[in-house]
Design goal:
Layout lengths: L2 E4 L4 H6 L1 H4 L5 E5 L4 H4 L5 E6 L11 E4 L4 H10 L3 E3 L4 H9 L9 H9 L17 E5 L11 H10 L3 E6 L4 H9 L5 E4 L4 H8 L1 E7 L2 H8 L4 E4 L14 E4 L22 H4 L3 H15 L15
Parallel strand pairs: 1-2, 1-4, 2-3, 4-5, 6-7, 6-9, 7-8, 9-10, 10-11
């Protein structure tokens, strides 16, 4: 029995589908062509269709629509077979942005699991191999308001006594390379694909990331994540990974469901006011909870703690 799973975008949303694909038997995954490589990594996925680019499957036994847009609903009907569709909780999410009221929706993986009719799997959903010896820093994000200031990434990386790898995607070469250049011995990696990024994840001991696709990639690979949240909040269902969320309690949050180009009130206090000390404390707590016998998280000699 072949199940078609529909999730067109974005990278993080596609990766979070890995919580349910393994429980659905053979899966044909339909997504935006940009995310085909990511979808192919998910458990249970035997084929990936780039929607609008590749031929549609000729036959499926069931459709699980995890996008729930007008386009995905039309496609689900075209594919035939019974269809189950994820609940988006759009009104609840909008009320939290507009009026700062109402309970957060269930997590994304809970919503996906309800639509798929399976229990959500615990990460890792993506298997990587490596020594797990490095701090991964993921400073980029599609939206400017989700980015922590670059100089704080530098300070955080300088405090770490082990290997540091700064990761990014296409178009983030300047940001990633600039931060890595200021951290002694740090490596930088930006690529359009996932091959070298997955190799870097195998070295991931812990990751620090903004609310981005790379945060979800690290979490899906089982790397503990310190997630930095600004215009969005960890309570709204997208931080489902092992690790800790670091965020400020402000009456203006959440101000957006996705982030934006500028802060609506002009001060960007959510991330501008997020200190290195707060992020460092979370990183150290993850290290302590991991019970590692090789304490890599401590100040470099001569650096301020």
């Amino acid at each position: 029995m072949t199940t078609a799973v529909l999730r067109f975008s974005s990278l993080g949303d596609v990766l979070l589908c890995g919580a349910v694909t393994g429980g659905l038997g053979p899966v044909t995954f339909l997504t935006h062509p940009r995310y085909k490589a990511a979808a192919a990594l998910l458990p249970g996925v035997v084929s990936v269709v780039g929607y609008g680019e590749d031929p549609l499957p000729s036959r499926v036994d069931r459709v699980v629509d995890l996008h729930a847009s007008p386009r995905s609903r039309l496609l689900a009907r075209r594919l035939g077979g019974p269809v189950s569709t994820v609940e988006r909780y759009d009104l609840r999410r909008r009320l939290r942005v507009w009026l700062k009221m109402g309970a957060p929706p269930p997590s994304v993986v809970e919503r996906y699991a309800a639509a798929a009719g399976v229990g959500p799997a615990v990460a890792p959903w993506i298997r990587v191999e490596g020594p797990g010896d490095a701090l991964l820093l993921c400073p980029g994000a599609a939206h400017a308001t989700k980015r922590w200031p670059a100089d704080r990434w530098v300070e955080l990386g300088r405090r770490y006594a082990g290997a540091v790898i700064v990761l990014g995607g296409p178009g983030e070469e300047g940001l990633v390379g600039g931060i890595a250049a200021e951290i002694p011995g740090a490596e930088s990696l930006c690529e359009a694909g996932l091959t070298r990024t997955l190799q870097a994840l195998g070295r991931g001991r812990v990751a620090v990331s903004g609310d981005s696709g790379l945060m979800h990639l690290c979490g899906a690979a089982g790397v503990p994540v310190v997630g930095l949240f600004g215009p969005t909040t960890s309570a709204d269902g997208f931080f489902v990974h092992a690790g800790l969320a670091v965020e400020r309690s402000l009456p203006c949050r959440p101000c957006s469901r996705f982030g934006g180009a500028v802060c609506p009130i002009g001060d960007h206090a959510c991330l501008e006011g997020l200190s290195v000390e707060a992020v460092w404390a979370a990183l150290c707590r993850i290290e302590a909870d991991g019970g590692s016998s090789a304490p890599l998280v401590h100040p470099r000699p001569g650096r301020e703690a």
